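Support request, priority: normal
Reporter: lab tech (M.K.)
Component: structure prediction queue

Hi team, I submitted a job for GLPGLI family protein from Psychroserpens ponticola yesterday, and the status page still shows it as pending. I've pasted the exact input below so you can check whether something in the sequence is tripping the parser. The sequence length should be 271 residues. Please let me know if I need to resubmit or if it's stuck on your end.
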Amino acid sequence: MKVYMSFLVAAILLVVTKMDAQEFKGKAIYKSHRKVDLKMDDNDKNSEMKKQIQEQLRKQFQQEYTLTFDQYQSLYKKNEKLAAPAPASNGIQITISEGSDLLYKNIKEKRFVNQTEIYGKQFLIKDSLITKSWTLVNETKNIGIYTCFKATFSETYETQTITEEGKLDKVAKDRLTTAWYTPQIPINNGPEDFNGLPGLILEINDGELTLVCTRVVMNPDESIDIKEPKKGKEVTQAKFDEIMDKKTEEQMENMRSRRGDGEKVMIKIGG
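Reply from support: The job had stalled in the queue. We restarted it manually and it finished. Here are the results:
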């Protein structure tokens, strides 16, 4: 296997060298799937409610994104689609509200710009790209016509949970992220904020979110113009996280004050 891998890597590096000698651009289309695991009391009423909510969330978390890229820059955004009305069942209707984010990355300059809107206000998050400590794994698989290599990284991250009293509490969790990248497209980039591997990332899974590339178009006929977003109040990522925490706590307070008189559940994600 090691001998085979050596020949395979050498062959791919030859292709990479030829491609790297010329400027190229492209588009990669990704589809998302998110694992939904709700915790409720195990009585019959809550069990049925849990199934309904999970199914509605599963469908609404299925989105499509486009990564437009050249050798050093990229623009990542969600593809618009017609909103299908979600019929309420037993008084439950889940609505996912997402902002029209634009994520610009400049790999050469090691920075990103994220244009996003929350609660009617637009922000322009500017900060440095974080290079993750990837571990390269001696394992391959094909995604479409591309030979992909496996890479992983482990991290401890902070997330929020709702206590029994209905308050937000921050907890630390461990997470293993697995990526599949192809050196056949020699750019140090990928979907969302992922980067730092010797080839375009075509698949990502962090245990909850999965992003899979369904189509790649290299050097398309139509013109590709990657423009850095400019609209919104400029903040760092740390400052934006602080604002989000405050807004989330305010939303929780509003929900507690109206508890018991609503029929809809509104979940806002980044917008």
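The first strand starts at residue 26 and ends at 34. The two ends are 48 Å apart (CA to CA). Let us know if anything else looks off. Ticket resolved.
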